Amino acid sequence: MSQVQEEPKVAKDTKEKILRAAMDLMALYGYKGASVRKIAKAVGIRESAIYNHFKNKEEIFKTILASLFTTPFDDFFENHPPEKDAIEGKNYLMKFAATIKELSFDARNEKLFRIIMLEIMQSDEVRKQFLKYFFDENIKKLSTAFFVMMQHALIRSGDPILMAQEFFAPLFYYRLEITLFRMDERPTHSLSSIFEKHVDFFWEGIAL
Amino acid sequence: MSQVQEEPKVAKDTKEKILRAAMDLMALYGYKGASVRKIAKAVGIRESAIYNHFKNKEEIFKTILASLFTTPFDDFFENHPPEKDAIEGKNYLMKFAATIKELSFDARNEKLFRIIMLEIMQSDEVRKQFLKYFFDENIKKLSTAFFVMMQHALIRSGDPILMAQEFFAPLFYYRLEITLFRMDERPTHSLSSIFEKHVDFFWEGIAL
DNA sequence: CAGCTATGTTAACAAGCGTTCTTTTTAAGG
DNA sequence: CCTTAAAAAGAACGCTTGTTAACATAGCTG
Predict the structure, then answer these.
(1) pLDDT in tens, B83-134
(2) Of A46, A106, B164, B181, which is most buried with the most CB atoms under 10 A?
(3) CATH assignment of B9-65, given 3.40.50.620, 3.40.630.30, 1.10.10.60, 3.30.1330.30?
(4) Could you give the CA distance from residue B24 to residue B69 in angstroms, rounded to a whole number?
């Protein structure tokens, strides 16, 4: 019995340690700056031991990438399908902004965002995924929400996609600002209410 | 006669060639990826000859940086001081957006923007300058414009700084989108009218 | 023309990189 | 206890990196 957990315990442990260390270092120094030796040292093993767990450095990065773009937004739209919940109007937008805000102040998501920003101009894969999530899918879902709001005469009519971009862009902008502030250890508490302010301002501009 | 151009001709020539080559390569591969040897090869000299013109690689980068953040926005606000011209209302915003649009489709500025985005998480100096220009100064000037518009009852009242951020963020977002699209050789002509659309949408939200 | 300075080449350095090979250590199962 | 396989260490490889030193070659200035 116990056929379920057949895998070697320690191995999986260090494999995850490697991924965690690699993620930390890449979030700090980028793909190139996070050398195999530095990663190994952070884990507490020799660099050659890394190759017992990963084919090469790129595979480490690929593995991290795979976890990079999962769930952050999918989760929201699954729990709050625009077709149904967008009726809430401003409240729906507030919930969305609150999600972004949460992510902005979450340590793990901060690391992921850093890696994305560090490699977005270098890695085709990162850029592809970024465009897919941050521009295409996200905007598409949000535009559905605005379309629904228009149908229910909650907001003025117009191009839902443009509206979605206009709504999302400042959120992205503030999120980037927080990350950059934090890198210089500048305080970010003044930015903590900016997401709500954005929704207030935006809603006032579109509400009927 | 011709007393004007007293300086050594060839020297300044190659020094500028080095800067240009370094800028090209750094815009493509980042600071680390643009090795001294690659730069030298692009210029057509040996890597050691570089050190006749610059103390080290970092000095090359610093020199480029110094030219990075000059004038793009300063020019606009000098030619269109918000205290005087913001009376134009929507037209003023349209002019500002047009400037961003121009920069987005200008080859040289594209390179500068790439370098900024590539090094913003790595170089303290780049980040500092970026925050100064793209967030602080820019927003401050724009907020003056909105303040003037409020005084003249062209737009609804509110926090001018928030309004400036809300106006600028989508411009930045679209500009980033264009750069990313172009890296994948995706067409950007569909984005050429987005700046005007943004102004239209935004103005409708704040106009009285 | 001699000499100086600027600019270039050639060669080399120490260090770091990703990766591979061989050997040793560790842990588990029959 | 012995076998076996996994995981780690150690050493080395070929390569690239930034930088320096020694030397050559111009071109201008006296």
Answers:
(1) 999 999 999 999 999 999 999 999 999 999 999 999 999 999 999 999 998 8
(2) B164
(3) 1.10.10.60
(4) 16
